[in-house]
Amino acid sequence: MFADGGLAASDGARAFIAEYAFLEPPPALSRRIPGAFELEPSLHFRHQSQTLTVFVDGHVRPLRRALSIRNSIYGVNPEAMGMGWFAPVEGDTYYDPE
Fold it and tell me: Would you kindly state where each structural domain of the chain is located, as residue ranges?
């Protein structure tokens, strides 16, 4: 899966979207992995509040944000910057199909 990615970051003076190559899984999936911790959202919903997603079979779909967070370890608000995860965010997800 490929999609519009980024990471909400700050240099201390301003918040910005940094280039980021990974699509991090939603919190419910992170909690299923022993020893893992919750990661920052890395999907950027920048196309009319959607992210363009390319699936392994080659089809492309615009998907809307279903979940985000308001506080990050970088001191910014990822939700306000258009970052988050698309549904489903629990169970059998696009991030970890079973």
Answer: 2-86
Prediction pTM value: 0.90
- CA–CA gap between residue 56 and residue 9 (Å, rounded): 29
Residues 30-72 pLDDT 10s? 888 888 888 899 999 999 999 999 998 999 999 999 999 999 9
Tokens describing residue 9: 């970051």
